[in-house]
Design brief:
binds adenosine-5'-triphosphate, binds zinc ion
């Protein structure tokens, strides 16, 4: 997690230009944008390139909706670490009297959400969460590798056009013994840089931390960074001075293995790792790098996009 850069002139100009050209469309909510056909086509191109980068490993492919089980999020420890980012789905489940009270609250612009009942679902905060419960039990000798992608929500409204509340995250999730998982993550670092270079992006890799909540969270973040558990690939979106994380390679040690009863073939608690790609952020990095006129992009990218 990097602090949101203040909206300096370069940042504002890039965002305004994206709106002006209609690549992104404002909805009145920061971090929630409509996309033009062309922008989404660029996201689809990025998705194909990410999928191609991992295809040789023959991952199992799974797709989940943008909502996930509330019980899963409770069990995963997400609310302990990131209560400020979570989005939950609550629905009206009351009487006619409750309904009238709700409409009065809407009319008088009061908080009409107070009377809504919890449902069995929350908004998915990352693509990988629904995978861990499926891995419970003893893994095959070489562990498992899953390819997932879903629309994710994080409550982090911002004027930074790269910090969305709703965005698509592509991930490869690996579960096996510690040594196998660490070697797998290591092997991805070169692949991430190669993938970025193939798109013409200048990137660097840095140790980072997740945006843990509160004072204990600050200690967790320091420890995560110190141990190199989270590595981010940074590229310019809001200018060169404050590069943005477009991909991350995360090592969870035995955190999810313990929580979800995942065992490596040798009987030890399995370790897990995920390599994550922010599809809109990579698309934005491409517009930043090659310009907002896609017709002028390098030929191999134009061809790959069918543009
Ligand atoms: P950041 O450091 O920017 O807060 P993060 O550490 O929370 O990101 P991860 O949890 O590693 O990010 O998410 C994987 C990838 O998803 C990130 O590398 C990024 O490309 C993308 N991503 C994360 N948060 C957002 C967001 N708010 N808007 C758009 N893309 C995001
Ligand atoms: Zn993940």
């Amino acid at each position: 997690m990097r602090p949101t850069p203040s909206a300096d002139a370069a940042t504002v100009t890039f965002r305004e230009e994206l709106f002006r050209r209609g690549l992104l469309v404002e909805t009145g909510v920061p971090g929630v944008y409509g996309r033009s056909g062309e922008f989404d086509d660029t996201v689809a191109l990025v998705e194909r390139l990410v999928m191609a980068a991992g295809a040789a490993d023959r991952p199992e492919v799974l797709r989940f909706p943008p909502v996930t089980s509330r019980a899963l999020i409770e069990r995963s420890g997400y609310l302990g670490s990131f209560p400020h980012l979570a989005g939950v789905v609550r629905c009206f489940d009351g009487s006619e009297r409750d309904h009238r009270a709700l409409l009065r609250a809407v009319e008088s612009r009061e908080d009409w959400g107070v009377g809504l009942a919890a449902t069995a679902v929350v908004l998915a905060p990352a693509a990988c969460y629904p995978v861990y419960p499926l891995l419970a039990g003893t893994l095959p000798p070489d562990g498992r590798l899953v390819d997932v992608m879903s629309c994710c929500f994080r409550h982090e409204p911002s004027d930074d056009v790269a910090r969305l509340q709703s965005f698509r995250m592509y991930e490869y999730v690996r579960a096996a013994d510690a040594q196998t998982v660490l070697a797998w993550r290591e092997s991805w670092l070169a692949r991430l840089v190669h993938l970025a270079h193939g798109m013409g992006l200048d990137v660097r890799i840095e140790a980072a931390s997740d945006p843990f909540f509160g004072r204990t969270g600050a200690l967790l973040a320091d420890s995560q960074r110190g141990q190199g558990l989270k590595l981010e690939v940074l590229a310019a979106i809001n200018g060169e001075h404050a590069p943005t994380a477009i991909m991350s390679a995360n090592y969870h040690q035995d955190h999810f293995g313990e929580l979800f009863g995942i065992r490596a073939h040798d009987g030890s608690v399995a370790h897990t790792s995920c390599v994550a790609f922010g599809l809109e952020r990579i698309a934005l990095a491409l517009y930043r790098r090659h310009g907002l006129d896609r017709a002028r992009w390098p030929q191999h990218l134009r061809q790959a996009a069918g543009a």
